[in-house]
Design brief:
Blueprint: E1 4-5, E2 12-13, E3 17-19, H1 24-33, E4 37-40, E5 55-58, E6 67-68, E7 74-78, H2 83-92, E8 95-97, H3 108-113, H4 126-129, E9 130-136, E10 142-146, H5 151-157, E11 166-176, E12 179-188, H6 189-194, H7 196-202, E13 205-210, E14 216-225, H8 239-251, H9 256-266, E15 271-276, H10 277-280, E16 289-297, H11 298-315, E17 323-328, E18 343-351, H12 357-369, E19 373-374, H13 384-390, H14 394-404, H15 413-419
Parallel strand pairs: 3-5, 4-5
Antiparallel strand pairs: 1-2, 6-7, 7-11, 8-11, 9-10, 9-11, 12-14, 12-15, 13-14, 13-17, 16-18, 16-19, 17-18
This protein binds flavin-adenine dinucleotide.
Length: 421
């Protein structure tokens, strides 16, 4: 018996064994011999997606390398590599990912499997960048799928939650390597809300962080730029000051509204830097938190954010972390929360040392009233009826699962409850 926990510490499991196969043959044998299998990437999901009492697989050591297509528009990449390793390897070859999220330790497979996304009104999630998969199936055999090869398996696998097989390599769209200019500044929420369409159109990536008790936001944009000397790695949030305020707020929650106003004097100072895209996108997140995120039709995003902030203020909920507001393009992936057109995304966090369950339940009701659908990797309380109501393709998804994994080797208890299978 082994022990495993996710990044935030809120999911704990006791797998029979944790294996790190080095070759595809070893991987195939491990899957064929196992009763139950889940794969873990970097364990950054807040939902119990990787939980298992069977075999837990890590693929970071699996053989494989980046294979660049002759037209340099796509690459096959090892699915278990962290985005940090992958983006550095791509940069060395003069290539970049189309978009990235806030951090980069996630595995390519884990990020794709959950629809992980960054920000950008015209840019889809990482799952939209994937156009082919090499999967080890329940019998341990390797199968390839893409839009023209086993198309139904491909459609389901595009946002898979690890239900169809173990991804060993993923073919992704890439761009010629580019630099980004990052700008961070403090702005009034009222101004950002009024000018949101203009601000979203002005740069390739736009997002903001807003504390529930502050009227200002930390406004962040990224835009392609010519290289400049003097690049330094850095964070969008000053974590040392933030940790100090969080610990004070945890000891005296009544101080949180005033602490957040003080925080905004420290955070959101105007800064600018230019650097390689793969080093500008990610920040370090060393302060542990728990997170719920819902995705909305873009027109509902800001109104729902305002509702959620008003609710927290009215009830004086001790929420220590800021909301994060981002934009994403619509897509056509069966189980993607962005598959109904242009989207807005609201992340709601709480310091992991403070209670989060009660507030998450209350704010989830606000998010659902705004026609939101949850990020699959982050806290939500959907059940099988909700999933079917929100996703017309659920039955197709589950049919492909039943065909490819008839004995349910790849499903765990929480996912079986979620889908009612
Ligand atoms: C600090 C932090 C910041 C984050 N920032 C963002 C963000 O900016 N944007 C965003 O959208 N999300 C964000 N997330 C969520 C995160 O991107 C997702 O939880 C993502 O799935 C994590 O990747 P992982 O490699 O840790 O996957 P894991 O949590 O390890 O696994 C996720 C799922 O993928 C499956 N899986 C993993 N590897 C394989 C494989 N080889 N084959 C088949 N299935 C596999 C697992 O079984 C599981 O179902 C963040 C999370 C944290 C903790």
């Amino acid at each position: 018996m082994s022990e495993w926990s996710n990044w935030s510490g809120s999911v704990n499991a006791r797998p029979d064994q944790i294996l790190r196969p080095k070759t595809e043959a070893e991987l195939g044998q491990a899957i064929a011999a196992a009763r139950k299998v889940r794969v873990v990437g970097a364990g950054h999901s807040f939902m119990p997606l990787c939980e298992t009492d069977g075999t837990l697989l890590h693929l970071a050591d699996l053989e494989g390398q980046v294979e660049i297509a002759p037209d340099r528009r796509t690459v096959w990449a090892p699915a278990g590599w962290g985005l940090n390793r992958l983006t550095a390897a791509l940069w060395a070859e003069g290539l970049s990912l189309i978009n990235q999220g806030d951090i980069n330790p996630q595995s390519l497979a884990g990020a794709t499997a959950t629809g992980t996304h960054g920000t950008g009104a015209e840019l889809g999630s990482l799952a939209t960048q994937a156009c082919g998969f090499r999967l080890a199936m329940a019998d341990g055999q390797i199968v390839e799928c893409g839009a023209d090869l086993l198309p139904e398996l491909y459609e389901a696998q595009r946002l898979s939650l690890g239900l169809f097989g173990v991804a060993v390599a993923i073919r992704i769209h890439v761009l010629p390597a580019y630099h980004l200019e990052e700008r961070i500044e403090r702005r009034p929420l009222a101004e950002v809300a009024e000018r949101i369409d203009e601000l979203a159109a002005a740069t390739r990536h736009m997002e903001f962080f807003v504390f529930p008790y502050s009227d200002d936001v930390i406004f962040k944009t990224l835009h392609p730029a010519e290289p400049e000397p003097g690049f330094v790695d850095g964070n969008d949030i000053d974590e040392s000051a933030f940790r100090f305020f969080l610990d004070l707020g945890k000891s005296a929650p009544v101080l949180i509204p005033s602490l957040q106003k003080m925080m905004m004097l420290v955070q959101g100072k105007a800064t600018r830097r230019v650097g390689p895209a793969y080093r500008i996108f990610p920040s370090d997140r060393t302060i542990r938190f728990e997170e719920m995120e819902y995705e909305f039709p873009r027109a509902n995003g800001l109104e729902t954010l305002k509702e959620a902030m008003a609710y927290i203020r009215r009830k004086r909920l001790p929420i220590a972390f800021p909301f994060e507001f981002r934009l994403a393009a619509g897509d056509d992936i069966w189980m993607s929360p962005f598959n109904q057109g242009p989207g807005a995304s609201i992340s709601f966090h709480q310091y992991s040392k403070m209670p989060w369950q009660g507030a998450f339940k209350e704010i989830e009701a606000v998010f659902q009233a705004g026609a939101g659908r949850p990020h699959w990797a982050k806290r939500h309380t959907l059940g099988p009826d909700d999933v079917r109501r929100l996703y017309p393709k659920t039955e197709d998804y589950l049919r492909v699962r039943a065909q490819t994994d008839p004995d349910g080797k790849f499903i765990n208890g929480p996912l079986a409850s979620l889908f009612g299978v």
